[in-house]
Amino acid sequence: MPSGGARVRSGPAPDPRSGRSERRHYDLAALPNSGYTGKPPRYPLADYRIVSDDDEDAAAEKAWKERERSVWKMLWKTPQACAWSLPENAYLSWDVALYCRQLVLCEQSGASASDRALLPRFADRIGLSAAGLA
């Protein structure tokens, strides 16, 4: 029978001073209040494409790209970016980029409920929510 409770994060939080946490290399680090001051990495995703023969789509693609890049730069100024920049967390840059894309998608008037439901999951994964920081 599996251990734990009825929900994903049920039970007590891990104790950073326990032997088990030490074996798993679990430790808590405080994020700086000033945020990340380094240069953000290159945006890893390909440009978003709107497939159509309309000239307005080229302008929409350009606006989409500019918005994604501005969200990307904004996110890399947060304290969480200090954790993302560590070599052991290099894989998170893809998740941050996917969060950027999803955020821009959710800003559109035609975004579905399932699109908007993904946003908190990405935020949890990259540490932008209270649950993600825990």
Which key features would you list for this structure?
6 helices, 134 residues, single chain, mainly alpha
Topology:
Blueprint: H1 19-23, H2 55-75, H3 80-84, H4 92-107, H5 113-126, H6 130-133
Helix pairs in contact: 2-4, 4-5
Explain the overall architecture.
With 134 residues, this protein is mainly α. 49% of the residues lie in helices and 0% in strands. It is built from 6 helices and no strands. The protein has helices spanning 19-23, 55-75, 80-84, 92-107, 113-126, 130-133. The longest helix is centred in the middle third of the chain and has 21 residues, at 55-75. It starts with 18 loop residues before the first helix and ends with a helix.
- Unreliable parts: none
Question: Into which percentage range does the β-strand content fall?
Answer: under 5%
Mean pLDDT: 83
Largest sheet report: none
Which secondary-structure class do the elements indicate?
Answer: mainly alpha
SSE succession? HHHHHH
Backbone shape: elongated
Report how far apart the termini are. 26 Å
Beta strand count = 0
Q: What helical percentage do the residues reach?
A: 40-55%
**Number of helical segments?**
6
Radius of gyration, whole Å: 18 Å
